[in-house]
Every structure is written in C-alpha cells, then in structure tokens.
Write a structure and sequence with these properties.
It is built from 14 helices and twelve strands. 42% of the residues lie in helices and 18% in strands. The strands form two sheets. A six-stranded mixed sheet has the order 1-6-5-4-2-3, covered by helices on one side. Helix 2 runs antiparallel to helix 7. The longest helix has 16 residues. The model has no long low-confidence stretch (mean pLDDT 97). It is an alpha/beta fold and 333 residues long. A hairpin with a 5-residue loop joins strand 9 and strand 10. The structure holds adenosine monophosphate and manganese (II) ion (MN) (2 copies). The site of one manganese (II) ion has 5 residues, from helix 2.
Length: 333
C-alpha cells in the first residue's frame, strides 16, 4: 500500500457527514461496483452521499441499481451543495485526476479529497491516498476498508457490488492479478450473499445485441502483426453506427481478441465521439503494456492499460506501432 493505510481512510470517513464519490470515465465493472458498494455502505453509516460517474453508464450494470444510486444530483445542485457544506470527496478506481472527466472540478472543490485505488501508475492525487497495486480490484480494497470500519454493515447488495468488481477486473478469477486472497475475498462475499451465477449472467449474458454485433465486427476488422505477436483492431464511428452499439458497449472486445493463440498483446483503437482515440491495451505472457500506455500519458496495470490520443485514428495507430517497434522489432508483418 502506498500513501496512507486504510485505517487513516477509515477515520476520515467516520468523521465525514457529506460525501461525494467519483470514478473514471468509461466506467467498468470495478469502477461501478466500487461506486455502488461505497454509496450503499456510506448510506448504512448514516452519511449523506452522492456519486458522480462521468459520461454514460453501461446498461449491463443496471442490475446493481446504478440508475437509482448514481448520478442522482445535477452538476448545478452539486456545485451549490459543495460551496455551502463540508464535503469529503472520494475517488475510486481512477488512476489519475483527468480520468474523472467532467467531474474533476467538483472533486477538487471538496474540503477533503481521498483517493482509493489499485493502479500502479497512480501517483497519488488528492491530499490523502491509499494505492495498493497488488490488489486485483478497487472493490477488494473497499472490502478490507469496510471490514475495518464495521463488517456488520456489509449486506447482500454491498457484497454483490464488491463481487462484481472482483469478477470484472480478474476476468472471472482468470487473470494474473488473481491472488489466493482474491478468491478468499470472493468466497467471503458469497457467504455475505453475493450470487456468482446471477452476477456472471448479468455481466456476461445480458449484453445489448448491438454490442455483440460490434464485437463481431471488431474481430473481423482485426489484424495480426509482428509475426502474430500482436492483434490490432478498431471500433470506428461507422462500426458503432452499423452495429447499433453505444460508446459504452465496447467492454469485452479486448477479452475476445486476447483468446487468439500465441499473441502477446492486444491493441484496440476506439474512435470517441469527440474525435479522440481511446486505446485499450492488454498483455499476455507478462508482456508489459503499461509502459506503452504511460508513453502517451495514460496508465493502468502491467497487463491491462490504456491511454487517449488526440489525433485521427491512422496517426494514433502509427504512434502506438512506433512504440511497439521498440519492444518487438521493426518488422510489423
Ligand atoms: P480499458 O482498456 O479502458 O479497460 O483500461 C484498462 C486499464 O487501464 C484500466 O485499469 C484503466 O483504468 C486503465 N486506463 C485506461 N485508460 C487510461 C488512461 N487514459 N489513463 C490512465 N489509466 C487508464
Ligand atoms: Mn476500472
Ligand atoms: Mn479496477
């Protein structure tokens, strides 16, 4: 753990009465699981809590009651509230402050700014931070935190939200970040009421049809490069329109591409609505993709990282490939 211990975070939370929660844009299962779990837990502690997720929330996570619990206060209301009340701001699962998207200024307005995260690349923004790069997910850290504060407040809904984050970030306990402790935490969360089959069905078997069509299009558009060591693919605005998928429906495409035998890395270029390119990187067999993301101001983990490049797709691709050349040699065929 870098920064402070969870006991310090726990005491700051005990002293707070109003709390605003933040997470990263294109929120994934760990980000949303963390936001929902923390919202419910803080409510159980008797706090006034509001959660702010940048952009749209993926429909696949609606089973966590994301619509009812998150983004319930408007930006105008939040700005007024934070100017009159002593609000503690907490960021979860966000590797740096820019990842908070449109809510970054609100986070900065808090009288206290706490950061709880598991990204190695998190330099520790906020005045108090707890970053554990060895934790599989932010939800695993929150589970420890809740056990420090008061384990009896962890009900079935909170356990389910935490389990969702654990499953999402470990790829159902399959990736290299799955530790013995992750499985023990998973087991404890099941004992507390989380249902593995319902959660898996909700995450993996409740996708909008358009997202599956988009995944298929992205597989068809993919190319093997560097002698099959890298698979590169795309999600363009045209592909989104043709498949009827939404921007927030791209989760899972990298998981599909990483199935290919002998590939060391997956690179997915996504054209965002503002014209910038969001690059998702995945490594296999220990191939470090974090160093590629950080070269472009992004971040993440050794085997799962990302960055945003503001240029047209072909130029963004050329820049990423030039970086890959450094590690895989100049032959891209
Ligand atoms: P993604 O490809 O969006 O699923 O992201 C993979 C991992 O990299 C996640 O842990 C993200 O939090 C992290 N990540 C993605 N994009 C960025 C970025 N622009 N800056 C820092 N971390 C990122
Ligand atoms: Mn995340
Ligand atoms: Mn995470």
């Amino acid at each position: 753990m870098r920064g402070v211990g969870l006991d310090v975070i726990a005491s700051r939370i005990r002293d707070a009465s109003d709390v605003f929660l933040f997470t990263h844009e294109f929120a994934d299962g760990d980000a949303l699981g963390s936001m929902v779990a923390l919202t419910l837990y803080l409510q159980a502690m008797g706090k006034r809590v509001h959660a702010f997720v940048p952009g749209k929330i993926q429909s696949v996570y609606q089973f966590l009651a994301t619509d009812e619990l998150l983004n319930t206060m408007s930006a105008a209301q939040a700005t007024v509230h934070i100017s009159v009340a002593k609000v503690t701001c907490i960021s979860v699962d966000a590797a740096d402050i820019d990842r908070l998207g449109e809510w970054k200024p609100l986070f900065l307005s808090g009288v206290e700014r706490l950061v709880i995260d598991h990204h190695d690349t998190n330099a520790g923004f906020g005045e108090v931070f707890a970053v554990d790069g060895s934790a599989s997910s932010c939800c695993e850290i929150l589970f420890d935190l809740f056990n420090i504060i008061n384990p009896r407040l962890i009900d079935t809904r909170i356990a389910s939200a935490l389990y969702t984050g654990l499953v999402a970030d470990t790829g159902s306990f399959q990736y290299a970040n799955t530790k013995a402790l992750s499985l023990m935490h998973g087991a404890q969360l099941i004992e507390l009421g989380a249902s593995p089959d319902e959660i898996s069905r909700s995450i993996y078997e409740s996708k909008p049809y358009g997202s599956l069509r988009l995944m298929a299009a992205s597989v068809v558009a993919s190319r093997l490069m560097y002698g099959g060591q890298v698979v590169v693919s795309y999600v363009t605005r045209n592909m989104l329109a043709d498949s009827g998928a939404l921007d927030e429906d791209t989760e899972g495409i990298t998981d599909e591409l990483r199935r290919i035998a002998d590939t060391k890395a997956v690179v997915l270029f996504k054209e965002a609505s503002d014209g910038s390119i969001k690059v998702s990187l995945r490594g296999k067999y220990g191939f470090d993709v974090k160093r590629i993301a950080t070269a472009f101001g992004g971040g993440g983990h050794l085997l799962a990282a990302g960055c945003t490049i503001t240029s047209e797709l072909s130029k963004a691709e050329e820049r990423i490939l030039a970086e890959l050349d450094r590690y895989l040699g100049p032959s891209r065929i």
